[in-house]
Amino acid sequence: MQRVPQEQAAPLTSSSSIDPRILHLERLRARIAAGEPMTGDLASSFALAATAIDPTATEDTLGRLGGNGGVTLYRSLVGWAALVPRERVLDIGCGSGGATREAARAVGAEGSVIGIDASPEAIAIARERTPDELGITYRVLRAEHLAGIPDRSIDCVIASLVFEQLVDLGAVAQEIVRVLRPGGRIVASVMDFDQLRPADAAVFGSVLAVVGWHARGALSGRASRATIPRDPRDLTALRGAGLAGVEERDVQLIAVLDTEEDAWDLFSRSLIGQALDPLGRLDLRGALARHVPHTLYLPMRFLRTRRPG
Fold first, then answer.
1. Contact assessment for residue 192 and residue 299, using Cβ atoms and an 8 Å cutoff
2. CA angle 127-144-95, nearest 5°?
3. Which domains does the chain have, with CATH numbers?
4. Which of 51, 118, 263, 276 is the most exposed place for a label (fewest CB within 10 A)?
């Protein structure tokens, strides 16, 4: 059996030398492993704790992938937003700032961009990665409470792979409508695992078998629902906030997994990998090793809607 690096395989302890953020994440993992459904506060706490440990995970893995038709995670999202110079943009759940920086380049020096994230660690990295000339304002804020952002002050809201992590999509949608000007738009991306190719479904089936054994609570909540906005609860949340009909565009990111290390680099930094304890991560690595080499097509959906007016 393949061995993982010591820092991944060693059990975590309560020693005072251990980062308290790691201890917090380990406690959340234990609850998920015991079968507590990863919904509500547990889901949001876990996502925030995982981000605190690895705030650049999404940008450093999915953000580097290309896809069909030249699709990329951030530039394609911003392109579908059709931003123009001087517009005012809000990036919800900005993480390490990949989409935020693309938006700032699109609206130019006369525009303005605010990036918000609930994770202080992500905001700190976003500031480090952003050149001064882009002039982005970063703030630690939750999407449900956009405090300090005035009514009708934003032309476009963007959200890259964050909707799936929201506990109350309806509350977020209402806040988005509040800060958007009439006719303002929102553009978001979500992963669309409903559309996996059979060969890719086999890979994810092996991964989910590991999750089901070691972290069964993770198979509830968002993981058990259709991709946004196909789940009726999500569509009701968007419509209830007063947003117009949702346009959809399905695309794929492509990950070439030539080696076990390629697969491990992609999955170990995902929320799936973070939900597993050291033994689970060992089993995950073994499961991935059985599927390489493999070219993995990751289906993604772009969403676009507007505040009427």
1. yes
2. 25
3. 18-53+193-226+259-292 (no CATH), 69-191+228-253+299-309 (3.40.50.150)
4. 118
